[in-house]
Every structure is written in C-alpha cells, then in structure tokens.
Amino acid sequence: MTAATAASSSLAASREDWLGKATTLSEALPYMRRYAGQTFVVKYGGHAMGDERLGEMFARDIVLLKQVGINPIVVHGGGPQIGQMLDRLKIKSEFIDGLRVTDKETVEIVEMVLSGSINKQLVQLINDQGGQAIGMSGKDGNLIEARKVMRTKRDPDSNIERVLDLGFVGDPFNVNPGMIRRIQDAGLIPVIAPIGFGPHGETFNINADTAAGAVAAAVNAKRLLLLTDVAGVLTKDKTLIPELSVDQAKALIADGTASGGMIPKIETCIQAVEKGVDASVILDGRVPHAILMEIFTEGGAGTLIGHK
Ligand SMILES: Nc1ncnc2c1ncn2[C@@H]1O[C@H](COP(=O)(O)OP(=O)(O)O)[C@@H](O)[C@H]1O
Ligand SMILES: CC(=O)N[C@@H](CCC(=O)OP(=O)(O)O)C(=O)O
What's one GO MF term for it (predicted)? Predict the structure, then answer.
C-alpha cells in the first residue's frame, strides 16, 4: 500500500467512525425528548464499584442524564465493602435469604461504610465528572422509615415454622420524598445510602435493591435500573430474556429459573412496577455505558420488567 492509499483509507475509517458516533447521538434525540423531566432511579451495586474506570464511566453517564434533563437518583450498595471491613475487624457475618444478619455492633459498621466512605466516594466521582451530587442516607430528611424484617422458616423434620431474627435488618415501609424533590429542584443529584431509621430511633440496614425499589415507587419514577454482575435475567440455558411481564417474572421465580440474589432483585422490580413505576430493568453494570444503551437505544440492554 502506498502512503497516499494508506492515508485515504485511514481517513475513510475515521469518517465511518465519526458517522457512527453522530448517528448514535441523533438516534438518542427522541429518547431525550421522551424522558426529559422524568425521574430515573439507578441502583449501583457494591460489586460494580471495584473497577475504577467503570466507576468513572458510571458517574459520567449519571451526569449526562442530568445534562439532558432527566432526573437521576442513585441508590448505592456496598455489600462486598461491608464484608471486607467486618473481616478486618474480625466480626463474623452470615446471610439469610440474601440479607445480612445485622446485630448492634454490625449495624454501626454497616452505617459507617455505606453512609460514610462509599456514599462520599460516589458523590466525589459524580462531582469529578462535572455533576453536583449530594450524599444522604435514609435518615436524612426522614427519607426512609423502616421496620424490622421478619422471616420465618419451616423446619422440614418437625414441620414447625420458626421465626428467624435478622437483627437490625429493615424493610422500608415509608419513604418521604420531600427532601429528594427539593434536592432535584436545586439541580443536584441525590446519592442515597440504604440505611433507614426505626420508630424507636433504631438504625436499620436495608438491602440496596429493596431501598432503590422503595425510593423509585415513592418518587413515581419512570424507570428503576438495577445494575448487577450478569447480563440480566437468564433462561435455564443462560440466554438473556430481553423483556418480561410481571406474571412472566413471577413464573420464573416459581419454576426455579431465577434463584439466589436474582429472586429479591426480580421481586423488587415487580413491586416497583405494581406501585406505579413504568418499568424496571435488570442490567449488567460491568458493561461500559450500560445505562446509556438501556435508555437511549431502541433495543435497550438487560431485562425489562413491565406491564406488557
Ligand atoms: N435466572 C437468573 N438469571 C441471572 N442471574 C441469576 C439467575 N438466577 C440466579 N442468578 C444469580 O443472581 C446473581 C445476581 O444477584 P446478586 O449476586 O445478589 O447481585 P448484586 O450483588 O449485583 O446485588 C447473578 O450473579 C447470578 O449468579
Ligand atoms: C440487609 C442487607 O443485606 N444489607 C446489605 C446492604 C448493602 C447492599 O445491599 O449492597 P449490594 O447491593 O452491593 O449487595 C448488606 O449488609 O450487605
């Protein structure tokens, strides 16, 4: 290849690249119009936080949503980070049905890690990308009122149902969105740690998916996006299911297709939709710009659960 032909083919390649980018931007326009002024709740899980580059891209996507007139609310997790801190302090931790059994000592660590370090790191990440984020926990502005979670388990031998005590694990039974509204009206992005307050001044540890679902329902969100570490809801042969009705989602839990951590995730999505959120989406937080693909492209990303 001569120098002239090499230069002309590299020009053609960069022109094609440029056209591709311009087309993507132009295709996003109807979605930007449709969603301007709407609220999107995004749950950012602890597993996705490990990668610095992905964290920056996540923060950039959140700032972009705000820039095009969408109101993002971030609810974050931090399960692995809580686990590391408990290990360092030599405090044992166990899970029942995906929920961390949380005694008095553990809830202090959970609050410190979630409302302290993780919440502020995320605020900083978003601010570094040009946004204006404000961190809060469910205690701030009386945001998340919680009550003790009750779980029972039937003993297979005696067939007696036993009550399991998870300690300070909370169920968000009332979310007061007033403070969120004021933060949004001021042009800021709320970043929420899944900590709730109880009727007797208790601090409750809330599963981050559950907290995000409750916040989404309370603010009448257009979408609830749960970022996780799989492509979405998969069939038994591991292919991605792009869309599910509420009844189909319930059937996947009943027939065992969804198991482990996917069960509370799907349940959260169903509850949010039943309480007025337009649709919930489970998508892969490990894929760069998964949020943008979901919101601004025809095909979307992950699994959308809604009224079909
Ligand atoms: N049908 C299914 N489709 C996708 N993932 C599933 C399914 N059933 C179980 N899972 C499991 O659920 C996990 C996601 O839940 P979890 O680990 O609690 O996520 P996170 O830590 O992001 O909250 C997946 O990594 C996968 O192992
Ligand atoms: C009650 C309960 O289990 N709370 C969770 C809260 C954090 C969380 O949910 O974080 P991820 O989304 O990163 O898993 C915990 O203690 O791990």
Answer: ATP binding
Q: Which residue has the tokens 């295709």?
A: 27
pLDDT band of 140, cuts 50, 70, 90:
very high
> Residue 199 sits in which domain range?
34-306
Q: What is the 262 CA–ligand 1 centroid distance (Å)?
A: 4
Domain CATH code at residue 143: 3.40.1160.10
Give residue 4's pLDDT. Answer: 67
Does 182 carry a binding-site annotation? Answer: no
Instruction: Kindly report the pTM of this predicted structure.
Output: 0.92
Percent of the chain with pLDDT over 90: 73
Residue 205 labeled ligand binder: yes
For 169, residues 6+ apart whose C-beta sits below 8 A from its C-beta are 99, 100, 101, 102, 148, 149, 204, 205, 206, 207
First to last CA, the chain: 55
Q: Is residue 12 part of a domain?
A: no
Residue list, ligand 1 pocket, CB within 6 Å: 45, 47, 228-230, 233-234, 257-262, 265
Q: What is the mean pLDDT of residues 139-156?
A: 92
Establish if 9 belongs to a structural domain: no
Distance 113 CA to ligand 2 centre (A): 11
Regarding the beta carbon of 82 and ligand 2, being less than 6 Å apart is answered yes
Output phi, psi for 55, to 5 deg: -60, -40
Structural domain count, the chain: 1
261 Cα: distance to centroid of ligand 1 (angstroms): 5
Say if CB 202 and CB 187 are below 8 A apart. no
pLDDT band at 125 (very low <50, low <70, confident <90, very high): very high
In a domain, 6, yes or no: no
Does 162 belong to an annotated binding site?
A: no
